[in-house]
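In this section we walk through a basic example: taking a raw amino acid sequence and producing a predicted 3D structure, encoded as discrete structure tokens. The instruction is simple. Fold the sequence below.
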Amino acid sequence: MDKLVHIKSILINKVLHHNVANTYTIAIGKETSSGNEISIVGNFKCATGEKFNFNGKWVFHKTYGRQFEVHGVEKITDLDELEIRNYLTSFDGIGPSRAKRIVDAFGKNTLNVIKKEHTRLVTIGIPSNIVQKVHNEIVKNDVVNKLVEGLRPYGISLRKINQIYETYHEDSLNILETNPYKLADDISGINFSEVDYIAQDKGIEHDCGFRIYSCIKHALFLASENGHTYLPADELIKKVNAILSFKNQMPVDNNYIMKVMLHMEEYKELIIEEDTAVYLPMYYFAERYAARKLYKIRESKYNIPLNKDLDEIIKEIQDEMGVEYAAKQQDAIKSALTDKVLVITGGPGTGKTTTVNGIIQALLKNEPRTKIELAAPTGRAAKRMEESTGKNAKTIHRMLEYKPFGDELKCGRNEDNPVDADVLIVDEYSMVDIILLDKKLRALENTTKLIIVGDVDQLPSVGAGNVLADLINSDVISVVRLDTIFRQAETSPIVPNATLINEGQMPNLDHKDFTLIEESDENIVAKLIVDEYVRLIKEDGLTLDEVQILSPLKKKTVCGSKSLNDLVQEAINPSVKGRPEVVFGSTSYRIGDKVMQTKNDYEKKCFNGDIGYIIDINKTGQDPIIIAKFDDQEIEFIGREEIMKLELAYACSIHKSQGSECKICLIPAVLSHKKMLKKKLLYTGVTRGKAVVKFFGTKEAIEYSVKNNDEDARYSKFYLRIQR
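The resulting token sequence is shown next.
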């Protein structure tokens, strides 16, 4: 690593570029000792006329020549009167005349007056709105530069540093010194582990109340990422102490942790129900509201009366569409016309799509003016729903008219502005978590009919809750289970094999479209998968959308999706000299790569699990820009933080594949994935395939999955609340 050097007393003559989002700056400065001009680049805030000491290193840019790359900043406040006047003219509304008037009035104390007594400038004729803007900007520059110096060594990005200032303003530095744990509570993307390092360096005690408070919230957040809406109090205390005592730190007394929890409950930071279940408030209120709202919908009268005989409606539809509904399908259609809330569940090939089409036709035959909304959790699921029904379908987010509010979701459709629908039909409901259910129900009138469709045997949602299973297990909501496998599905080996897996039996692996390539060496397994992927794309002419590698595990093994992605990328989209490429960490991003968004970004309208393709890369500026196409929209990802929310997606985890389908699925079946080899995971992976499923590995791994019915239980009280 190059040794950092220190350059002193650099006066900024001109700011050539400043990126507001990440504070990347290109400026021309002058060494006051020698008068030499230098080019300065780096992440800091400055204005013409300001003076700094810089830590950094000299670099050579092929276009711009010798530059000083800034790593640390110290602003010099001891400016002479001419330097202060020049500095003030860098602000909008302050020309040379006003700058002279200000400095004549306050002399070398001008900047202190602006920071601490800025209203005094109004008394010499400077408009108050300009005074306020100059004050805000000078204070912000000072604080942000100090935050950069204090936080960059801990890997806190400039975007997050700006978020810190926008949250706390002048109090930012005080909070950083006295309670850095507050950053984890208030700033999206900063977690407990990051601030714990900062706090340790500042000498904050290991049993400090701030630390325990923040760790409790962190433990509950981690639990929500594992699907839980709450944790039992004793289990939460164990998890908190495990985190607190990480890296040989002293454990904290359990009674003291409980005392902090009770204090948090008093201030409504936690909900502790019946002295045992500890909730973050958002999950408690989501469960409670959703259960109450479902009760109100069930008990409220539907606006449209039943105008025709149900059997007559079904006969008309069968005659017109040339179909014959199974008994359970007829039950579902009838329930859709008579019940306010209905769940339809069934595996692949049981006719869920046909049933939904029948329900739509039945609703319209009963009353042609019925307003029906169709929705699904993901764009691809909504698109499939639209194709299969011939009706417009939206993602749930789009139906709710979401609006970005930081990293949170604010909905244009809510209790005050509900969705304009008599009936809402939502598909792929196994993917819906408790927060999305809460927001969706808030956007429905009590008179609206809700029809839910999904396969309860698939993996539950990535987010907290076990919504579809809870609705079914409540024994309060009307449920129809489709169980007839139709003839067109029987020709595919996927459907009967999925049924066998679901019943805990070994699938038939002898069919050419449902097979196992046996190999115990996992390095060879990975090579076989990559070779097959390349063959299907390059020789058979399939598209990247038609072939998907699905792995039980993301990392840690050569057959995890991360490793397989790297291998496939090198095989079908290798690095080419002269072609733009972005590298962050161990991931290279290239034009043509298939990528997946891994975090919800409401501003970009791009959501966790969305699949796209990189169509352009721009590296002319300091921050690289990747442009990716997701269905019908092109989205820019600027800089490290945004780009690293994209993962290569030639391979993905089975969890991430929920809601998607592809023609051919390639699945590693290896015992190093033993921790993840479970029946429900295998069933979910297999049912992603439409035509072909190929395993690579061993029968032992598949058999272990089939026999392992030990699903991870989720802590949720939603089904109990529905029953009340």
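Looking at the output, two observations stand out. The first strand starts at residue 5 and ends at 18. The chain has four domains: 5-152, 206-279, 285-489, 505-707. In the next section we compare this with other chains.
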